[in-house]
Amino acid sequence: MVPQSLESAAGGHVLDTPYNEMYESAGAPRSHYRILQDRLKELGTEEIQRRQQAADLSFLQQGITFTVYGEKTGTERIFPYDVLPRIVTAAEWDVLARGMTQRITALNLFLHDLYHDAKIIADGIVPADLVYSCKHYRREMRGIDPPRGNYLTVVGTDLVRTPDGRFAVLEDNLRVPSGVSYMLSNRQVMKRVFPNIFRDYDVRPIDHYGQELLACLREVAPVSQAAARIVLLSPGIYNSAYFEHAFLARQMGIQLVEGRDLVVHDNIVYERTTAGLRRVHVIYRRIDDDFIDPMAFREDSMLGVPGLMNAYRAGNVTLANAPGTGVADDKAVYAYVPEIIRYYLKEDPIVDNVETYLMTRPAERDHALKNLDKLVVKAVGESGGYGMLIGPHSTQTQRDEFREKINAHPRNYIAQPTLSLSVAPCFLEGNIEPRHIDLRVYILFGAHARIIPGGLTRVALRKGSLVVNSSQGGGSKDTWVLNDSPDS
Amino acid sequence: MLYRIRHVTAFQYDQPIRESMMELRMRPRSDAGQRCLEFDLSTLPAAHTRSYTDHLGNVVQHFDIPGIHDRLEVTAAALVETHAAAPAPTAPDPAAWEQLDALADRAEFWDWLHPSHYAIPSERLSAFAESAGLRRDADPLTVLNNAREALHAHVRYDRGSTRVDSPIDECLEKQSGVCQDFAHAFIALARGLRIPARYVSGYLYHRTDDAEPTGHGATHAWAEAFVPHTGWIGFDPSNNTVAGDRHIRVAVGRDYKDVPPNRGVFKGAANQTMDVHVDVERARGD
After folding, report:
1. Of the candidates B48, B52, B114, which has its C-beta nearest A266's C-beta?
2. What predicted TM-score, i.e. pTM, was given to this entire model?
3. What is the pLDDT of residues A98-155, one digit of tens each?
4. Is residue B66 within 8 Å of B22, Cβ to Cβ?
5. Interface touch A264/B21, C-beta < 8 Å
6. Residues of chain A above pLDDT 90, percent
7. Measured distance CA(B136)–CA(B189) in Å, rounded
8. Structural domains of chain B, ranges and CATH numbers in brackets
9. Rounded to whole angstroms, how far apart are CA atoms A205 and B196?
10. Which of A139, A263, A299 lies nearest to residue B55, judging by beta carbons?
11. How confident is the model over A430-451, as a mean pLDDT?
12. Do the chains contact at A128 and B48, CB–CB below 8 Å?
């Protein structure tokens, strides 16, 4: 029932053999997967199937859904869940945790520098063109000092495992990263579906995420932590992540508000409540910069709060994350993150980037245009897997279209080798089959960095697919970070 | 020169509105050749006005009125002292182009060298530059003066011919425009020659014997370009002059979008009409 060998799922294209999360070699599971393999054998396919159905039902009943944009019908879906956990050892996690702390620290310093003296540009490390042509660079943020110099309160960083078994950062999400509610729900469902297997492993808890986030939000408040009144600002029910907004507000015990629930008067932000206006000190905002304040940004935004930026500038309210963080997760700026880490911290990156070709550099562009069938091309300002070309799975028409786009707007695109993402066993229609996965980890930063030991392992459910985004047919599985390897 | 300025903006709403909020860039700058000695802003209905300095050094005043109203009047009064700019060098400087190109690598000049919202290059603008012989041949100052004259000769100042957000192409095609159009076209031409250029919103003092087309009673706009050794020089293509001590600078930006004299939002399903009146008078220095 558990396959003896998991063949490459890349679908006939020449890619390196992917790293296999579970098996060291044919039939030989890695030591930390041995217990799982034994337990799955004991349970048998039918029993696993039953538990998968129980899990699906649980998600459905909880209404854990998301919205797919760009489709005419049936945009609301249940996020597909795979019952088999992905297991990360303590040693592996230790590297990731140090790497992510280093990365968020450097990116925070980078943002502060870009919005103050821009020394990194003057010193020739990052080109001025790249920063000032980025649509997410907010000139309105120049000279503003966020509390504690903290621009990034919540970060979601996507990691992949390369064929040699090392983790590498695929992209950072520094604006309004989502998905953490799936991480938390997956764990709750897992504990119910496989209580015994879960107990057999010494898995680090993640359920304190909401409390840690709340603590970070308090730490960046403009007033004393005890006095700080915190709200979660959502664009509303039509947003794809609305479920998550409600979920997190409930977990933290804070108000879930929309733009129309807040009002700014004399540079102070108030919430309209049935008991009158109540002052707000910290806003965990899940609205993009563009829409957050029609006075400062898009005038046509109906979702935001007029005057919010003025209140923010005056130091009367904290926005988490700060406006303008998107300049640092621009996919072309991403290519410079290793240099950014060296520049601010005088350290080498603990976790590397994926090799990236910048289309603004003629030699790299020529190389990419000649090899479009082998590369992945991404639009720099997009996320969620929109605006992407997967070379090996593309048609000539799609490649021609991207060639044209790249030549017309080289600043807007980057290219990366098609990564042979690692594979993990997934339970699909009664069989256990390998599928490609990645890992989004969540980093919280208030007075200091807190990395939740776990994450969202995203699965490319279609056989051979390398796209894990939920908007593009991906699913997820629970991610177990162990306190120690079971046999050490 | 000492000027007293009174800038009244009256908004009328055809239905009652509430929670109006407004941001104003009306306080004259204190830098380069001028100083703002007094400034007072009042609103009707009365509001508590606050201010901040934006990243370009412009002072922004803002206020909000929570209650129901159907009319809003903003009066900005200022006393400003201006000095004539030092005369621009007359001898052409052949090294100036290289010095300009050295600025391109500096972060603080990036915004002044690249297209912005309203100052966008176009085929029509390139054709205009071509026909006017605007290229990097003489020294930057000569070329900029040529650009000013060429625009003035080609485009007729016509108050109300275009809206403030009209693109450059429309003004070149119709051969008529308002001061914002002249300024945007000039900025795009200068940036096209890789000369840093920016937009200035402000006021112009009209002497009774001046035959300037830009009228009394309104705000004014022109452009500034950066010339090595001299610094920022104001060019007023609508009036075919170099900005001098009759030009009162209020705000600078990449183009109009950065520095509208007022922008605001309100709640209510009303249509808004706006009436602006500006008075610039000579004041006696004590």
Report:
1. B48
2. 0.92
3. 999 999 999 999 999 999 999 999 999 999 989 999 999 999 999 999 998 999 999 9
4. no
5. yes
6. 78
7. 12
8. 2-82+262-282 (2.60.40.2250), 96-258 (3.10.620.30)
9. 56
10. A139
11. 94
12. no
